Amino acid sequence: MDLAQTHHPISDLFPQPASPEEWEKYKLSDEQVQFFHEHGYVSGIRILDDRQLETLRKELSGLVQPDHEGSDLWYEYHTNESVDPNSVLFHALGAWRIRPGFHDILWNPAFTVPASQLLGGTVRMWHDQLFCKPAKHGGVVAWHQDYSYWTATEPMAHLTCWVGLDESTRENGCLHYIPGSHRWELLPITGLAGDMESIREVLSPEQVEEFQKPAAIELQAGECTFHHPLMVHGSFENKTEGPRRATVINVFKDGTRSAQDKMILDKTEAIPAGQKMEGAFFPILFDPEDTQLCFERD
């Protein structure tokens, strides 16, 4: 069964608030929203409890086995995104279509409410990702901007939420940001796995100077970080005895349009250029008007 056909939670893993007051408690503070707009990210936000973490880890343990049930539903599936067998980076897109926990996390109010605040409106699904670095030799995720891979949509109204399923540290390959790089222009794609430094080939001298001041985003398991689609980010190898696993939820503001006629994500439906991104694979996850929440709009 393709869970993309169901646009609401199918389990009790992420209870939905029953009143405006219950929704309100998930809002970011004004200071957090301001920090995001100034620096391009905001981090350290807990969105998973222990039961939710355990469920997602259990589902993930089966998904990393290539012959699992539902394997035909992935948008992409790479047991190793790197070309180096000694530097493994498991990377896959589309877990929400296959397992109930990864499906229902999209409607987690601890995620959807902050996402709506940062986007300034109604939140639609784009796609999810899994990034797993095994112990000792987990591969890198090279410096990049997310929107460089997403130009099949317009305007640029996207948001990324990176969720740690393990503690994320400098030693095991936590995310790093270049603060303020969300104000840079769109950079060319220089590769997602392998050479961390390949992006330097397309940077100005001023941008190279900014690389001297990266911010390491260390998180506890169950915490997340949100970042802007132009934020330059990457993560180094895992040097520890344990895995470093993460799930990523990518969303966009309702009203975003297709910028091409061909299918944007594999095994989905083509949306003609200029038409609104919507349908089974791009459902609404949160509309603030439905909850009577009032957000300051950009």
From TrEMBL:
Pfam families: PhyH
Gene3D superfamilies noted in UniProt: q2cbj1_9rhob like domain (2.60.120.620)
SUPFAM superfamilies: Clavaminate synthase-like
Database matches in InterPro entries: Phytyl_CoA_dOase-like (IPR008775)
Protein name: Phytanoyl-CoA dioxygenase (PhyH)
Stretches of the chain forming a coiled coil according to its record: none
Keyword Cell wall biogenesis/degradation: no
Organism, as annotated: Thalassoglobus polymorphus
Keywords linked to the UniProt accession: Dioxygenase, Oxidoreductase
